[in-house]
Amino acid sequence: MLGFLLMGCSKPKGGETIPFPSTNGYYTESSKLMKNGSFQELRGTDKMSLWDWNYDVISSWGMDITRECIDMKCTSDEDLQALVRLARTKGFVIILTAFWYDSDAFPNGSTPYPDCQLLGTTPTLDPRYPVIMKRWKQIARLFANQSDVWFGIWNEPYDWNKANTASSEQWLYDASAITDSIRQTSANNILVVCGNAMGQGHEPFLEKGAQLLSGRKNIVFDIHAYSTYWKIPVSEIESRLNELNNLNVAPVIIGEFADNGTQPYQDIITACRETHTSLLAWLWGQYQDPFSSVFEQYCGEKRNLN
């Protein structure tokens, strides 16, 4: 699955770390994503820069956020720092997202696809959970309170089928455990939390989101809007997003959609435009036309930052 990416751009050479801006940066305020007191609507891409380090083109599109896929065993501190340095040079927010553990796509990995993936599992019941949380604490200390570095705590957890997926109670337990463990490091970076049903389920946000945010802050809810549960009229997509925003609990982003243009995308774009929801498309380097042209135009549109 990842072999085609090995032909990408080479890793940047060393160099000094780009300093993190001294302003108060990104944070959440009820259902709004904020930066230095102003509401932010971001547009960007999911990316695997460990095989393709080029940020020039995505920057030229007008994007300002990437969701980078990382391996919680094989991605080194040096690689993470190089990713952040590259994104920061272009003024991007970067979401370091836990995708794999010990993938054999990396020279130092040994677990073949799909067993290396984290998706579809219940985090606290996954046998890899202790070592993944140990790694998250190391990463949190490495980038503590650098507000342009967000942590995507676990990619697409739980069964995809809502008939079999985790309950909202299980989601709350897992999200609380991971959040509290990371916060033990005193890192208050924004945490990006998927729902259930491999990220397509938004119900836990409605039912237990307020409990998760009780005594906690800087959490963003992440929806992956694919056809299983999001191929619905645009009015219903807008209604779901507005319902979540009206809770005034946490900001919502669409962290994946379109699947390179093979999945419905126009209604998602329209709903995000109308609700000022931050939007990221899967997967950079694989976009197909006409989606590629449509999304490039959307990323270049002026944002309504009220």
Helix percentage? 25-40%
Count of helical segments?
9
- β-strand amount: 15-25%
Which series of helices and strands comes N to C?
EEEEHEHEHEHEHEHHEHEH
The shape, in one word, is globular
CATH architecture: Alpha-Beta Barrel
Name of the level-1 CATH class? Alpha Beta
Number of beta-strand segments: 11
Q: List low-pLDDT spans.
A: 1-9
Q: How is the quaternary structure best described?
A: single chain
Structural category is alpha/beta
Question: Span between N and C termini?
Answer: 41 Å
Number of separate structural domains: 1
Might you state the CATH topology name? TIM Barrel
Model description:
The protein is an alpha/beta fold and 306 residues long. 31% of the residues lie in helices and 18% in strands. The chain is built from 9 helices and 11 strands. An 8-stranded parallel barrel has the order 4-5-6-7-8-9-10-11, surrounded by 4 helices. Strands 1-2-3 form a 3-stranded antiparallel sheet, with no helix packed on it. The relative contact order is 0.14.
